[in-house]
């Protein structure tokens, strides 16, 4: 089995973390950089990541996370928050960054900028937020797989009260809302889930070749 498949077979949704083991700063930096490099629609990245290691904050989040132990036992909690609304500033910021990164005049990007604005700015606020949330999941999936490559365990979590997270983390003031959470760290030897076979649809059931 090649490394790509080995890593995906190795990872599982860790239910019980070893609270004594912490992800190193170096590995955390690599994990976050891999996530930063993720693709997104138009390259706009309409989201923000909150990296939480403060135990007091994790204790605050646990009751509004269905009291799941991963929140307090994991090394870090990564909260992915999508932009709830945006205007021209999202596209203009991207164009400015592109101009600086690629050393090209901003004026040469006007056509592309106008195209993006024509497709996005007229959408209802709810549609904008849903579109941004879909971009989150691209980065989220990349983080899980990057973690597996680093042999860092993870647990994807949607079982939490988004509005309470927003209050605790002050997200509305930043035009953000909590979308999904990833707990990262190292599996406990007591986590029986790690020994269970991975259950997935068969290739024949899942895939159609045309």
TrEMBL record:
UniProt-listed Gene3D superfamilies: NADH Oxidase
Pfam families for the chain: Nitroreductase
Nitroreductase domain: residues covered: 10-186
Sorted UniProt keywords: Flavoprotein, FMN, NADP, Oxidoreductase
InterPro entries in alphabetical order: NfsB-like (IPR033878), Nitroreductase (IPR029479), Nitroreductase-like (IPR000415)
Cofactors: FMN
Family, similarity comment: Belongs to the nitroreductase family.
Protein name as annotated: NAD(P)H-dependent oxidoreductase
Species assigned in the record: Flagellimonas marina
């Amino acid at each position: 089995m090649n490394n790509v498949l080995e890593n995906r077979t190795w990872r599982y949704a860790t239910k019980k973390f070893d609270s004594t083991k912490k992800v190193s700063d170096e590995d955390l930096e690599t994990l976050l950089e891999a996530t930063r490099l993720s693709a997104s629609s138009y390259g706009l990245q309409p989201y923000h990541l909150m990296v939480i290691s403060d135990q007091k904050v994790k204790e605050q989040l646990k009751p509004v996370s269905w009291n799941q132990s991963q929140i307090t036992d994991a090394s870090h909690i990564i909260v992915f928050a999508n932009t709830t609304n945006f205007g021209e500033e999202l596209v203009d910021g991207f164009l400015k960054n592109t101009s600086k990164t690629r050393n090209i005049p901003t004026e040469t990007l006007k056509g592309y900028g106008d195209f993006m604005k024509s497709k996005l700015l007229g959408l209802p606020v709810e549609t904008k937020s849903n579109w941004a949330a879909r971009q989150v999941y691209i980065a989220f999936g990349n983080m899980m797989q990057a973690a597996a490559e680093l042999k860092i365990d993870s647990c994807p979590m949607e079982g939490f009260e988004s509005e309470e997270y927003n209050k605790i983390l002050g997200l509305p003031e930043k035009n953000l809302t909590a979308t999904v959470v990833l707990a990262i760290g190292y599996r406990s030897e007591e986590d029986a889930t790690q020994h269970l076979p991975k259950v997935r649809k068969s290739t024949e059931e899942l895939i159609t070749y045309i």
